């Protein structure tokens, strides 16, 4: 049987949105020579390294993946399509907190533990852009201060970008359906199996957090919560 080769794929990995399991699956379909995987520990240096490559080499990559891959779209082959997976913003921050608390190598671990932050304090801390409207800020390439100048306009702009520039915007809540859509669109032959890599253990579920914790997360991620509500309407189910 004749199999078409996979389409070129750029995948933006948002922290705590299932990226490690997704990467393990996707990279099976692309040769290592034609793949550019951003260094999760230093994504900014990876981004600059990619930009410094000659145009023919940049355009030759079949698969680009990682934190900040979105910022490389204009530097990749114009034929390359993009995909990403998002997650309920409240659940993402809960997962983020417990993951950092259990990860001494994480760049936020020392501050979180030294200050003995609660989940509510962590959500309000502003110690990282990953904790405040990270979806909108990530894809629009702005900071939270700019995002909050006109919250509804920020939601509109971010949603327009995702719906127009991304072929698939899936959700972690419907990960199997999202990955099957990616598999079909990008002509990937490997079988999708959710390996659940890097899953945060011993954490509260979204339903177990207190009203104070929920309110703190909502206040810091109001734009992302509305954006995610709109993304649900266009995501695979």
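Sequence proposed for the structure above (237 residues):
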């Amino acid at each position: 049987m004749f199999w078409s080769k996979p389409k070129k794929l750029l995948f933006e990995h948002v922290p705590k949105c299932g990226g490690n399991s997704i990467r393990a699956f996707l990279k099976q379909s692309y040769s290592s020579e034609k793949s550019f995987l951003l260094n999760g520990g230093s994504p900014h240096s990876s981004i600059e390294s990619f930009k410094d490559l000659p145009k023919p080499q940049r355009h030759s990559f079949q698969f680009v993946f990682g934190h900040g891959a979105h910022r490389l779209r204009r530097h990749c082959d114009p034929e390359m399509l993009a995909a990403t997976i998002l997650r309920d913003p409240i659940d993402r921050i809960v997962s983020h907190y417990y993951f950092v608390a259990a990860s001494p190598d994480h760049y936020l671990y020392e501050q979180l533990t030294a200050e003995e932050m609660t989940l509510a304090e962590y959500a309000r801390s502003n110690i990282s852009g990953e904790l405040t409207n990270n979806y909108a800020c990530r894809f629009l390439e702005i900071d939270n201060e700019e995002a909050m100048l006109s919250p509804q306009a920020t939601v509109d702009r971010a949603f327009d970008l995702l719906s127009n520039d991304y072929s698939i915007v899936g959700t972690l809540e419907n990960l199997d359906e999202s990955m099957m859509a990616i598999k079909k669109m990008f002509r990937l032959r490997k079988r999708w199996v959710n390996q659940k890599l890097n899953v945060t253990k011993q954490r509260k579920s979204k339903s177990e957090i207190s009203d104070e914790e929920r309110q703190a997360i909502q206040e810091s991620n109001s734009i992302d919560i509305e954006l995610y509500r709109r993304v649900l309407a266009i995501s695979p189910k």
